[in-house]
Specification:
Mean pLDDT: 96
Strand content: 25-35%
Radius of gyration: 17 Å
CATH superfamily of the largest domain: Hexapeptide repeat proteins
Protein name: Transferase
InterPro entries: AcTrfase_PglD-like (IPR020019), PglD_N (IPR041561), Trans_hexapeptide_repeat (IPR050179), Trimer_LpxA-like_sf (IPR011004)
Active site: 139 (proton acceptor)
Helix content: 10-25%
Binding site for substrate: 72
Distance between the termini: 44 Å
Low-confidence stretches: none
Largest sheet: 9 strands, parallel
CATH class of the largest domain: Mainly Beta
GO molecular function, one term: transferase activity
Shape: globular
Length: 213
């Protein structure tokens, strides 16, 4: 029996994930994907190119289903994933055919690695991590569960991004620096110092501009 890939979230990133899976023949063959469907709680503003079969809470996992959660916000993603896991959902790990993976790189279940990103060596990614287009992740980097890394980010050697942190587009983290759990780093920022848990920073160099709960 072929696999049905269930993409959770039919917004912009969900539609992108659908495109990336379609453009990854090696991945589709590896996972024996026969069809792709969506879960969404409302009719999307932009039509999707696959059926929406249920709401998040209305979905009952099928025997041949693999699930990818494509909700961009880390906190919302965690809530939905935990609900689906409680109902027995099995989570896929998606690595696009044009992603470069080096030696000793581990990727947790539910994570999504988009095309053009490069992972050098000795890297650990947690569960349900999103790494968008054209990112560079250096040696000995750690990315925690539910973190979101937006396009064109650079995480240099031994940097750490903790659970549920969010990096905006084109963020650079210098070697050995840490972004705390639940923190937000604004687009284009340069992280020269550790970012505190739950804080929001922005700029070059990145400076605190607020806090999140």
């Amino acid at each position: 029996m072929s696999t049905r890939l269930v993409i959770v979230g039919a917004g912009g990133f969900g539609r992108e994930v659908h495109t990336w899976v379609d453009s990854s023949p090696a991945y589709r063959e590896q996972e024996d994907i026969g069809s792709i469907v969506f879960l969404n709680d409302y009719e999307p503003e932009v039509p999707v190119r696959a059926p929406i079969i249920a709401t998040f809470d209305g979905y009952e996992p099928g025997q041949g289903d693999l699930v990818l959660c494509a909700i961009g916000d880390p906190a919302a993603r965690r809530v939905v994933v935990e609900r689906l896991a409680a109902r027995g959902a099995r989570f896929a790990t998606f690595v696009h055919d044009r992603t470069i993976i080096g030696a000793n790189v581990t990727v947790g279940p539910g994570s999504i690695l988009c095309p053009g990103s490069i992972f050098s060596s000795d890297i650990r990614l947690g569960s349900h991590v999103h790494v968008n287009l054209n990112c560079v992740v250096g040696h000995d980097v750690t990315i925690g569960d539910f973190a979101t890394i937006s396009p064109a980010c650079n995480l240099l050697g031994a940097a750490t991004v903790e659970n549920s942190a969010f990096l905006g587009t084109a963020v650079t983290i210098l070697p050995g620096k840490q972004v705390g759990a639940g923190a937000v780093v604004g687009a284009g920022s340069l992280v020269l110092k550790n970012v505190a848990t739950g804080s929001t920073v922005f700029g070059n160099p990145a400076r605190p501009i607020g806090e999140r709960r």
